[in-house]
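Reader question, answered in our methods column.
A reader sent in the components of a multi-part assembly and asked whether the whole thing could be modeled at once rather than chain by chain. We filled in our standard form and ran it. Here is what they sent:
COMPLEX SIZE: two components
ENTRIES:
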Amino acid sequence: MMTQQVEKWGTAELTLEGPAEGNPFIDIEWGASFKHRHRVVNVDGFYDGDGEYKVRFMPDAEGEWTYTTHSNVSALNAQSGSFECTAAQGDNHGPVRVFQTYHFVYEDDTSYFPIGTTCYVWNHQGEALETQTLETLKSAPFNKMRMCVFPKHYTFNKNEPEHHAFETLEDGSFDFERFNPAFFQHLEHRIGDLRDLGIEADLILFHPYDRWGYSTMPPEVDDRYLRYLVARLAAYRNVWWSMANEYDLMRAKTMQDWDRFFRIVQTYDPHQHLRSVHNCREFYDHNKPWVTHCSIQHGDLAQVNAWREQYRKPVVVDECAYEGNIQHDWGNITAQELTRRFWEGFSLGGYVGHGETYLDPDDILWWSKGGVLHGQSPDRIAFLRKIIEAGALVDPIEATWDLKQSGGDGYRLIYFGIHRPGFKEIPLPEEHDYTIEIIDTWEMTIKQLEGTFSGRARVELPGTPYIALRIHQVD
Amino acid sequence: MMTQQVEKWGTAELTLEGPAEGNPFIDIEWGASFKHRHRVVNVDGFYDGDGEYKVRFMPDAEGEWTYTTHSNVSALNAQSGSFECTAAQGDNHGPVRVFQTYHFVYEDDTSYFPIGTTCYVWNHQGEALETQTLETLKSAPFNKMRMCVFPKHYTFNKNEPEHHAFETLEDGSFDFERFNPAFFQHLEHRIGDLRDLGIEADLILFHPYDRWGYSTMPPEVDDRYLRYLVARLAAYRNVWWSMANEYDLMRAKTMQDWDRFFRIVQTYDPHQHLRSVHNCREFYDHNKPWVTHCSIQHGDLAQVNAWREQYRKPVVVDECAYEGNIQHDWGNITAQELTRRFWEGFSLGGYVGHGETYLDPDDILWWSKGGVLHGQSPDRIAFLRKIIEAGALVDPIEATWDLKQSGGDGYRLIYFGIHRPGFKEIPLPEEHDYTIEIIDTWEMTIKQLEGTFSGRARVELPGTPYIALRIHQVD
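And here is the structure of the entire assembly that came back:
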């Protein structure tokens, strides 16, 4: 039965015994209505194998919730009960939502600035490596992880995964009408691990790098898979739905398919987690109403403002090339360059994602398998994260042809990137006084200039690349 | 009278005495027809002050040339004579022409790859500094100089020039109906100095940075100035006509003005020197028939191929930002970054220009005043020049999503820029053998790999930025 007490934004789970014969994945309809005061939320349940039927729910309000099940079989129908939703504890700030058009926030109003990384299929690497990845994440600066539901077939990624999403027939092919609960249980387990580390799981529902058939399933299987996944995972507060990695490389899918996938997830997710889709070359139209934020692959972060203007949504450039030295240009930039892209993106009011692709004798590259980090950018990203979290939301304040300033109330951030002026004149409002700090984003130093500044302030600069200014209003 | 012997592509000059009263710049029409075998070329003459009238001509064929003058005053009319055009001597290869759509060549078929620099108003700095600039150029790698006819008013450029192009009235204003011959004599002198160093003078006819009125002259003055300049300078083989620096910032001019300027120069230049115009933001339409090559300000050299395709003319990116540390982003990139832009542009079949803008206590910045070079890019540009001159013309050969190759017959150049692959697979034709050299474009080293390569060649690379490959077919 249902747990009697569930933390706010925790996962309430109800398990009932039901029929194991036939095909429960297809034959059985089952779900529950959860009620709190005047509000009723309908939630799909799912079959978890061995005659067990589950429904999960993430309560978002403290107090008593009641529920009633519904099903086309009597064993699962019209069961009811209640549970108590208690206060959120510790680092539980609820799911992440869009905030002030271009930003994010936890549902309890705690600040959330996505600092993402990418380990596409870390969850398909077996216990030892997966544990190592989680250990690495404990001290890494990342609070969002891009990861795939399905395994990956690609250079450096030829290993067979432990689990598959469907029952495997004797001839080795999949029975697309029967999910493999062990596959999804493992996925949930890892999403829960991330949640416990304070990391959002930016979950990639489809991707093109496939030798098993996951990228070319028939529409009815795609749709059933999506509803099953949503039923299982929507009650995890740290889930984001990414329809695809590089959707535009999936030749078997049309734009109508992608629109339909979005609408399915939007319709059946009772908790309305964030939704986006990631491109290779051609952006999906992020203006469509079911897209909550932009998920962008692009190397030119100078365009962040143009994308903000175009889509009027948060801009997450979760792939801008990775620190590494592999043969492909998307995976062989320096730590300096990746750090530069982070600073450029963040200082323009966007959000940038990390990845690491160093050649490895065992083909364990962080970007897909996790493991340990080898690069020099994570320390700099941690430094940036501290600065971002200590500041206000970053939006454009004013720009001349020669200087872009961003920031918020009484707070400005200016980043010079590869440029290395020996001095710069910063136009500040005449009516206030400001302190100015010179930040060396690579050396990770912050030096406050003596005195305060007002009006057109001439700032002497070190004349080296990768310098930023942080400016605070003091009166 | 006329010199009796003139070297091919040298300057023949005929001087006649004529009226000094009235306004010879306006009142007198004067010129000559030069004839060699079946060919007649009509050339404008010009008034050089003190009752002296000159006509200049650059013969392009050896043997006897005859001439006859024509004028609306009898003293200058119907004078005739002849001179002998002798073989070109030494480093005289004639003027530069467009070659094979995207490239250049001297008229005697000697290779010419433009390696330009910029000293906008070096010719307005007085004898000492101008001499120093010429001394610097002797050992610099540059064979093209962007320079203005008119002086410049801008940051770091507030000094008054020695000469002005027009006669100055008592109230300090210009008499736009009377040129100042001393101004033009000095300009010619400097263009001749460059010629003697083997440097093309990419002469900028208008620019917006002005406090004297040169940028806002009435149309009839603009047009008279252009005809006067062409009459004086077209016989210098090293002249290129650049209608403007940043034409799109000159608010007093319309697109019709620019088109007219081109047509005037095209009509009256008997030697048809190269013609282009330089933008700030908006490109002039280089497809127009009077444009011989693209002159581009842009920082993204990856677009060279797109511009080649769009305009089907040589692409000269003569301003891609300068090595330096001034406050403006166009003048504060590192030597590494400028060298990278050079390599990217050249390896894609374009041509890139240099400039240097280091803060200086006396405001002597190479980019506008000349003087001496302080930066680290010129040595690397010299290294690149040797490689370019030792190779074939560079055009795109083949590209995959992950690798661009350029080059010509049996010759390939590949540049990785900021990317630093630990290895790369290079698709080479199966039917030939190739040698491969690894070039560190910053350290200026060339290392030939052992053996030869054919078909899909795996090349181990140092995994550092700024690496190029040079590939030669050996059978």
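What stands out: Chain A has three domains: 5-86, 96-390, 395-473. Chain A has nine helices and 29 strands.
Send us your own complexes using the same form.
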